[in-house]
Design a protein that fits this description.
alpha/beta; Rossmann fold; 7-stranded mixed sheet; 25% helix; globular
C-alpha cells in the first residue's frame, strides 16, 4: 500500500496524474472515504487530467454520469451511496460500463465491491484532523 498526502486543492492534479501513471492499464477506480473527505473533488481532478470537457458533478441521485473528453472518449462516474441492493446496479447495466474499456470512477465502491472487477484500483481518502490535509492510500 502506498500513501500520498494532499495539503492543498492545487495538489490534486499532481496526485491524479501520479495515480494514472502508476496504473496505466487500469480503467476502474474506486474512491472511498468518509462523507466530506473529498471523493468527488478528487474525481473532478481525475477528469481534468483525463481531458473531460463537461461539468463534473456527483451523480448522487442519478447514480451515473457520463462525461466526454477532448478526444470524445467517455468517462463514467458512479455514486453507489444511495443504492440499497445489487439489483439496482444490474438494472442500469453496470457491467456494460465497467467492461467498456473506458474510465469508470466510483464513489463508495465498498458497498458493492463484490460486483467490481478483481483488478479495480481502490483509493482510500482520509482526513488528517490536525491540519485538514488528505491522506490518500492505494
Amino acid at each position: 500500500m502506498a500513501t500520498l498526502i494532499c495539503k492543498r486543492l492545487t495538489g490534486l492534479d499532481d496526485i491524479s496524474r501520479s495515480l494514472l501513471r502508476h496504473f496505466p492499464d487500469e480503467r476502474v477506480f474506486g474512491f472511498s472515504g468518509p462523507m466530506g473527505a473529498g471523493k468527488t473533488t478528487l474525481i473532478k481532478s481525475f477528469c481534468r487530467v483525463l481531458g473531460v470537457v463537461d461539468v463534473v458533478n456527483s451523480p448522487t441521485f442519478s447514480i451515473i454520469n457520463e462525461y466526454k473528453t477532448d478526444r470524445n472518449d467517455s468517462v463514467y462516474h458512479f455514486d453507489f451511496f444511495r443504492l440499497a441492493k445489487a439489483e439496482e446496479l444490474y438494472d442500469i447495466g453496470y457491467e456494460d460500463y465497467l467492461f467498456s474499456g473506458h474510465y469508470c470512477l466510483i464513489e463508495w465502491p465498498e458497498k458493492f465491491e463484490e460486483l467490481l472487477p478483481d483488478n479495480f484500483v481502490y483509493i482510500q481518502i482520509n482526513i488528517n484532523e490536525k491540519d485538514q490535509s488528505r491522506i490518500i492510500t492505494y
